[in-house]
Amino acid sequence: MEFKDYYKVMGVARDATETQIKQAYRKLARKYHPDVSKEKDAEARFKEVGEAYEVLKSAEKRAAYDQLGQGHSAGKDFRPPPDWGAGFEFSGAGARDSDHSDFFESLFGARARSGSGNRSGAFHSGRGEDHHAKVLLDLDATLRGGARQLTLRVPELDAEGRLAFKERVLNVQVPKGILAGQNIRLAGQGARAAAESTPGDLFIEVEFQPHPLYRVDGRDLYLDLPVAPWEAALGATVKTPTPAGTVDLKIPAASHAGSKLRLKGRGIPASPPGDFYVVLQIALPAAGDEKAKAAYAAMAAALPFNPRATLGV
Amino acid sequence: MSSSQDQALAGAIFEETALLTVGDLSRMCAVEERHIVEFVEEGVLSVVEINTPEWRFSGTALRRARLALRLERDLELNLAGVALALDLMEELQTLRRELNARR
User: Fold this and answer.
1) To which CATH superfamily is domain A214-302 assigned?
2) B3, B13, B92, B93: which to substitute to probe chain A, counting the most A Cβ within 10 Å?
3) ipTM of the complex
4) Is A105 within 8 Å of A61 (Cβ atoms)?
5) Counting C-beta atoms within 10 Å of the first and last residue's C-beta, which end of chain A has fewer, N or C?
6) CATH of range A131-208; options 2.60.260.20, 3.30.70.1150, 2.60.120.200, 3.40.605.10
7) What is the pLDDT of residues B7-56, one digit of tens each?
């Protein structure tokens, strides 16, 4: 087990005051909070910071940690002395329901985790806790519905009461029309409070992987559709991929780049269903050969056109 | 744990089917009912307008309440701060989504 330097994690001196520690924590917590942060590894960093704060903000834990920490440095192998912990009583107040490192638990015990008692226990008499998970699905799952194999990381207490993560594979029927941020609720797939009790539910929050063609905005889908200049100018009927298959799309005359065509109800099949937006992009043919160059030259001669008119030049 | 391929677990979309009471939310978030009531008073959660003597919440309230509890606990925010943070986060999400769709 590696020794953790909680002072280093928090970026404070070993003689930092309570106020300094609190300030450091608040700053780091805002920076790395998984709900807020865009930093990589935010979640891991946040847990580390939370664990460090839990120790350093409590006078009793900090004193115990300081006593133990003499002569140890971060990353080095560490084993607490067998009689360690004697003489300290840990109240467990302010315990979080996140998982602690092995290092933390070897010092303060797994029981410190469930300490405060008002976040777990007490409220689910006879019923197991609900579990929450997040999965990344392909867009097809909501467009068509269907079974998907989902791998979830489930926290579980092992025989010593320590928190470990177990992989759980579930075959789940994805409800057609589910939107990003919504949850699939699987009744009875959460935790059991006791062997014969009613288990809690499992909530699976859905996000979508980027799709090669479509962008997702809530229940609406967007597709960039390249068209030739003459198709946009004169109007045309062109083949367009949609979630329900290829359709013939009528491009109105005098369309331009960025023109948005709406196919009502052809987005994600939620209730009500979303719309499918086609955003036109003008693709230019390459002036690769003499014939093409001549065509461009003819167009230049025929059309008095200043594409920069709006720029005042 | 292995689950058989043939039998897929079927679940409903929680946000579209759920209508929650204060008691439901309190149990699901493992906090006292008083806390949920405070969330409503501070505008963190809003009540669905239907004709029941008791408050009812839509399914989206669960996600919001859990997020609010995390912010409250982890960032040591007070309820007014949580309400503000949630509104700003929602606005940010809307802007990000719009940006993404128009990219």
Assistant:
1) Urease metallochaperone UreE, N-terminal domain (2.60.260.20)
2) B13
3) 0.83
4) no
5) C
6) 2.60.260.20
7) 789 888 999 888 999 999 999 999 999 999 999 999 999 999 777 888 99
